[in-house]
Amino acid sequence: MTSSAPTPELPPVYCPVEPAVHPAVEAIERRAVAWVDRVGLYRDDRERRRVLGTNSAEFYARFAPFGPEHNVQMAAHWVYWGFAFDDARCDAGPLSARPDLFLAMAGPLQRALEVPDERMSEDPLVAALQDVGRSFRECAGPVQVRRFTEAHRAWLFAVAWQIVNRVRGHMPGLADYTAMRLHCSGGPPTLAMLEIATAAEVPAREMDSPAVRALTEMAILVAAWDNDLHSYRKETVEGHTDQNLVNVLMRDGGGTAEEAMLRAVGLRDRVMARFLRLRDEVRRTASQDLRRYLDCLGHAIRGNIDWALRTPRYNDAEVAGVPMAAPRWVDRPSDPATEPLPIPGIAWWWDPLAP
């Protein structure tokens, strides 16, 4: 399906983080493509093009631009797997409208990740995930691996929540949507891999502190909301924008999609500004591994934007018509307010959070 509509102009983007990418990104991509072919993340040439069109190696090379090459390589494999799984089992396919069947599949899938040395299924997606799990155990410590597997479980749970809303025809309000989007976007496992990709291990007293928890969630939400904005045109053409920040804001406040998009940018910029202020506070007394992690959170936000502007996933001419226009970068948030957003569940991010 094609669209003849003009390319929508992206609202100005506030993200004062310099772009960065791992110097070995091309080699990482070549090896990742070979891995995708070896483990069979697709059924035919069309699915192969879609999987490779996620540009997952570039995606994660922007998140961890200074990690050991092998570790970034292993993280990129999971990103390819995650996009393939999302397309086949979450957004489309028979499980995308059956939360009962999705959960029946997701439980054994999660267990297969936790015990990757035991062959637990003939499903190629399960086998590929176990391959990722084995590689993580070889290049990372048990703490990093445990953090990743727990984040992976949270993601699967939130996807089931999203599917339930879809089946019920329920458009969540902003508070529920925000809570759901913090996890169903895939952000928790993606950011949990930062320690693995950079060979870091943030001490628990730092990683589990309210300030670092808030910073992690802020990075996830900004990236998730950015994806909502970047994917809106493509999802409109494909007919599944039911749970997208733009539609949620239209439901809550009315108006056009363009007006809702501007409101969305205001929300997103408020979180981005709080992230930058709190990150600078925490960084002053952080350990070396925590500083590395905090730097990567910033790279993740910026890298996600740069990746979205290039990936065929959002810029496929067969779907979206023409590529998105380049954004206009600005050095100030569109909403300069510094008080907490009136969204239960995240307002605590603006509390005094000791580093």
TrEMBL record:
Its EC number is 4.2.3.-. Keywords: Lyase, Magnesium, Metal-binding. It comes from the Bacteria. The keyword Magnesium applies. Its cofactor is Mg(2+). Signal peptide: none annotated. It holds the Pfam family Terpene_syn_C_2. The keyword Metal-binding applies. InterPro entries: Isoprenoid_synthase_dom_sf, Terpene_cyclase-like_2. PANTHER family: BETA-PINACENE SYNTHASE-RELATED, TERPENE SYNTHASE. Belongs to the terpene synthase family. This is Terpene synthase. It comes from Actinomadura fibrosa.
